[in-house]
Each structure stands twice: as C-alpha cells, then as structure tokens.
Write a structure and sequence with these properties.
2 copies of one chain form a homodimer.
Chain A (H helix, E strand, L loop, with lengths): L6 H4 L2 H20 L4 H12 L3 E2 H8 L3 H13 L3 E5 L7 E5 L1 H10 L2 H8 L4 H16 L3
Antiparallel strand pairs in A: 1-3, 2-3
Helix pairs in contact in A: 2-7
Chain A binds a DNA duplex through helix 2, helix 3 and helix 5.
Chain lengths: 141, 141
DNA sequence: CGTAATTAAATTGTGTACAATTTAATTTTA
DNA sequence: TAAAATTAAATTGTACACAATTTAATTACG
C-alpha cells in the first residue's frame, strides 16, 4: 500500500485504508439507490430482521444514538423506514421498514456480487480475511 | 462479530467494524498525546520523512485536501507542524515538523507495542492479515 | 410509596471523509 | 506570447463517528 511508512504503522494503517477502499468501491452502486454505506448497513440489518430499536441496531453495527438518530431521520425523510416510539416503553424508538424500504431490497440484491466483481475478489480471499479478523476479534472476549 | 447479518454482508462489514475497533483501541493512547488517529497518521508520515506537500501526504494516506487542510491547520494550532507556501511554486504548501512535533515522536514511540498488548495481538496475526490485504489490494493495479 | 439509579434516545460539539466547486498559480499549446 | 488546460490547496456542503451531556421514562430499593 505504501513503502514509506514504517512497519509498526503498517500494522494497522492497511486495515484502515482497506476499509475506506471498500466503502469507495461500494459508492457508485450505493449512489444508484441513494444510500450511504452506513445507511446501507442499517437497511441490511432491517431486511434481515424488520422492526428493531435504535439500541439493537447500534449493538449490531457498533454505532451509538449520536450517529444513528440523525442517520435514521434521513432514512425516514427518504420514506425507507418509520420511527415510532413504543407505547409500552416510551424511551424506546422502533425502527420499521416502510413498503418502499422493503422494495429497495430487490434493487440492492445484486450489490454484493457487483462489489466482488468491481474489486476483483475471489470468495476464498474474503473467507480467509474474515477468518483472520474473526480469530483476532475473538481473542478479546 | 454478529450472527444476524447475512453472508453477503459479512463479506465487508467485518473489515469496516474491525478498522473502527482498532481506532477505538488507539484512542486512550492517542488521547494521552492529544492526537486523533488521522492526525497520528500524518505525524507518522512526517516522522518517517519530514517536509512534504499536502498532496504527498494525501497520496500516502489516501486523503484529499478537503480532509487534510483543516486537519493540518489543527496540527499547526497545536504547534506540531508549520504550513509554508512554496516560494518556487506558490500553489504548493509544504508541511514541516516543528521542534515540538519532532519531540512528540519519542512519546509516541511506545504506542504500537501498547496497541498490540491492548488488542492482545501476536505479530504473526498481523503479518497474516497484512499479507491477505496486500494480496487483495494488489489485484487491482 | 417515593426517591435514587438506570436506561434509551436525543442533543451538542469536535473531527474526520469526500464530492464538488472555487481560487490562484503554473504549464501547454495554438 | 496569450488563451486554454492543468494543477494544488482551500472552501463549501453533506454525512458519518463518537464523547459527553441532557431529557424523559422506567426500574430498583430503602
């Protein structure tokens, strides 16, 4: 990635740079459905399991309400989700897919394959990468 | 990292989440020297090779002037770097370490080892991770 | 029961990220 | 050489990311 940075830096910079590179590769595909990458992640979680609280989304995506509240308001403005305060516990806000939000899943369905083509990736590379990250992440439990 | 996200998403989300996790692990160490992670990256590049243009820094860190200009102004406010417009080509701004900026390197020297301890990482894990990322990144050249 | 502690979102403030545009300087080229 | 094209930073605007605080609601407990 870069020769001039010393080894101790190369330890973590490549991951940081690679994550940004992936998001940049997603950009044109996500632009087509007018989502940012974090918005796409939220939609993915909701497509997998509709109706979740802000905290539940945050737990899965490692994001707090300071990030999610404005992001979810933007998704609401686009009529992709609705934000409803729970009647049984008024502290909780439930995030639910709208019809439009559900329908977007079809358009988004081809994105993962397109990304792999765009990045010229093999399934085996990704599996290997995932395996190592999982291995490292699991060390701190 | 999370079981509820489907496979196609897990392809890239783990890298995104892992990069954020690393930056969060850096935070307490960087707080101690009052740098953010991107600011630390800029200082690392300058410690490696002092005096670089905004474009050179951006090329190495994959950041544009929209990100770097305000960041460098903050480093200048902290008296860690100086920003000087080139006399031979007035379009270019040279970023140079101040004495204080150079001295900070000593304090920062222990950070990489501390990070590895904090994350409970082995050198071999990182080498493996780096190897795969390099392999994938090199596919697109 | 009523107050204290906890919890869930929202808010506030700082600092990236990046696209798009602007400004100013330098090169190209007709 | 003068206009056109290019280049380097800076600026503008939108959208995260996260710490810290605030607000409101619920639960715990003396």
């Amino acid at each position: 990635m870069n020769e001039q940075l010393n080894l101790s830096q190369q330890v973590c910079f490549p991951i940081y740079a690679f994550a940004k590179e992936i998001i940049n590769q997603y950009r044109p595909m996500l632009d087509a459905i007018e989502l940012t990458y974090p918005q796409y992640l939220v939609m993915m979680v909701l497509w997998e399991h509709d109706s979740q609280t802000v905290n539940q989304l945050g737990g899965k995506l490692h994001l707090d309400s300071g990030t999610l509240t404005p992001l979810l308001k933007r998704l609401e403005t686009k009529s992709l989700v609705s934000r409803t305060r729970s009647t049984t516990d008024e502290r909780i806000v439930n995030i639910t897919l709208t019809q439009k939000g559900k329908e977007l899943q079809t358009q988004a369905a081809t994105i993962p394959q397109k990304l792999m083509q765009a990045m010229n990736l093999e399934m085996e590379d990704l599996e290997e990468l995932k395996r190592i990250i999982t291995k490292i992440s699991n060390k701190n439990k």
